[in-house]
Amino acid sequence: MLPKTDVRIDAYIDRSAPFAKPILQHIRKLVHQACPEVTETIKWGMPFFEYKGIICNMAAFKNHCSLGFFKAGQMKSAPELQASNKEAMGHLGKITSMQDLPTDEVLTGYIKEAAALNEAGVKKAVPKKATETKELIIPDEITQALENNSVAKSTFDSFPYSHKKEYVEWITEAKTEATRSKRIATMLEWLEEGKSRNWKYERK
C-alpha cells in the first residue's frame, strides 16, 4: 500500500530550515509505518496526520521543530509526554536535531497508541474550566446588622452566593442612608423568615 501523502506537506518540508527537513521527514516516515492507513492534511498551516480523527501534528519553526499528539492526555504514555520540555508547542519539547527525538521504537509506540484511541472511538477529553472563587464584598453596615441578629445571620450564611449578592446589591444601590437603613431592616425581617431577596418571585 502506497502512503497517502499530501503534496502540501512536501512543500512545507521543502521550505523548512535545513536542520528541520530530516526531522520532519523522519517523523512523517514513522507515522506512515506505524499507521499505514494514515492520511495527511494541513491545518492552521501545519502538517497533520489523521486516522479516524487526528493522531498528531508536526511543525517547523526558526530554530526547532515540534510534535504534538491530539489525545496525549488520554494515552498511557501521557506521563512521559507531559514530563517533556514544555518550552515548545507539542509534547516532545524543542526538537533541534535528530538526537532530540525518542528512539524509533518509542516514537512508533506513541503513534500506534494514538491511532488505537481513534480506532476505539475515544473522544478527546475537554479539560474542565477552573471555576473562579467568587468573593462577595459585604459592607460593614450589613455585616454588623447580621452580627446583631443570629437568626438572620444563620439564614444569610446558608444562602448560595447568588442570594447573598442580591441582598448586598439591593442595599448598596440605595441612594440615601435612610433607604439603606430601611432595606437592612427589611432584609433582617425576611432572613428571620428564611426568605431570599426575591422570595416573592420564587416558585413555591
Task: Quickly list its features.
204 residues; alpha+beta; Aspartate Aminotransferase, domain 1; 4-stranded antiparallel β-sheet; 8 helices; 11% strand
Provide a concise account of the structure shown.
With 204 residues, this protein is an alpha+beta fold.
Structure description:
By secondary structure, the chain is α+β, with helices and mostly antiparallel strands. The protein folds into two domains: 7-119, Aspartate Aminotransferase, domain 1 (Alpha-Beta Complex), CATH 3.90.1150; 140-199. The protein is built from eight helices and four strands, in the order H-H-E-E-E-E-H-H-H-H-H-H. It has helices at residues 7-14, 20-34, 78-82, 104-119, 140-147, 150-158, 161-172, 177-192, and strands at residues 39-43, 46-50, 54-60, 65-69. Strands 1-2-3-4 form a four-stranded antiparallel beta sheet. The longest helix is centred in the middle third of the chain and has 16 residues, at 104-119.
